[in-house]
Specification:
The strands form two sheets. Strands 1, 2, 3, 4, 11, 12 and 13 form a seven-stranded mixed sheet that branches. Strands 5-6-7-8-10-9 form a six-stranded mixed sheet, covered by helices on one side. The chain has 261 residues and is an alpha/beta fold. 26% of the residues lie in helices and 28% in strands. Strand 6, helix 4 and strand 7 form a beta-alpha-beta unit. The chain has one domain: Metallo-dependent phosphatases (Purple Acid Phosphatase, chain A, domain 2), CATH 3.60.21. The structure holds fe (ii) ion.
């Protein structure tokens, strides 16, 4: 089966571009299951029910998130009822929503998606390593094909998670930095790995945000309003082919397309 993961979708330009690229990809090759990080899909910070629905309508099966998931208040209720928009599994156990899901596929193997958040330069979350162990216990017997989105700042923490899960899941892909790394590989145990998938957002920007505001903040250290940038949009992610019968990855390839405004 072929899985696609898109890096952090930034605002309306990102939502539009990801739909275009996914349509073109489906026209060119078989795509069986699509996951994307949506935590910046509404106005550049957070995700709201409207942006989530739009992304599902464009053909994404499961959305993951991270530190900005609560930025739009309307999402709290939506998350509590949704098994396809995830928040990190290692958030406090009492928070609304789910940190993983197992999605049945008509005529095919089910796919499990697990969303984790890092702790290095991030926040005082529960341990993502111990959390993923207990999530995998729950998933066992329900899905062989398993994708993990490790939403984290530090490359070291993401690399460590790749090794920790090697041979136990099909894909470990990082998100959050909005800058795609070039270290895609299949680890010895058969897990496809990429430190960061990158972003789906305006590329003439600072990680999707209009340059002027970001530079003003760096130069003055004063509070500044950030806006989603305009111009051409980068759509970045990864395509992984997985052997359905073993859950091991067969190939991994980075996606990097530019969609004109
Ligand atoms: Fe993030």
């Amino acid at each position: 089966m072929k899985l696609v993961f898109f890096g952090d979708i930034v605002g309306k330009p990102g939502r539009r571009a990801v739909g275009i690229v996914l349509g073109a990809l489906r026209a060119a090759e078989r795509v069986d299951f699509v996951v994307a990080n949506a935590e910046n899909s509404a106005g550049g910070i957070g995700v709201d029910p409207g942006s989530a629905r739009e992304l599902f309508a464009s053909g994404i099966d499961v959305l993951t998130s991270g530190n900005h998931v609560w930025a739009k208040r309307q999402i709290v209720e939506y998350l509590a009822d949704s098994d396809v928009l995830l928040r990190p599994a290692n958030f406090a156990p009492s928070v609304p929503g789910w940190g993983y899901t197992v999605k049945a596929r008509p005529g095919g193997e089910p796919v499990a998606v697990i969303n984790l958040i890092g702790r290095v330069f991030m926040g005082a979350h529960d341990c993502p390593f111990r959390t993923v162990d207990s999530v995998l216990d729950s998933v066992r017997g329900r899905a062989r094909v398993i994708l993990v989105d490790m939403h984290a700042e530090a490359t070291s923490e993401k690399v460590a998670m790749g090794w920790y899960l090697d041979g136990r899941v099909s894909v470990v892909v990082g998100s959050h930095t909005h800058v795609q790394t070039a270290d895609e590989r299949i680890l010895p145990g058969g897990t496809a790995y990429l430190t960061d998938a990158g972003m789906c957002g305006p590329t003439n920007s600072v990680i999707g945000v209009s340059r002027e505001g970001v530079l003003r903040r760096f130069l003055t250290q004063m509070p500044t309003r950030f806006e989603v940038a305009d111009g051409p949009v980068a759509v970045q992610g990864v395509v992984v082919e997985v052997d359905d019968t073993t859950g091991k990855a067969k190939s991994i390839r980075r996606l990097q397309e530019i969609v004109e405004e």
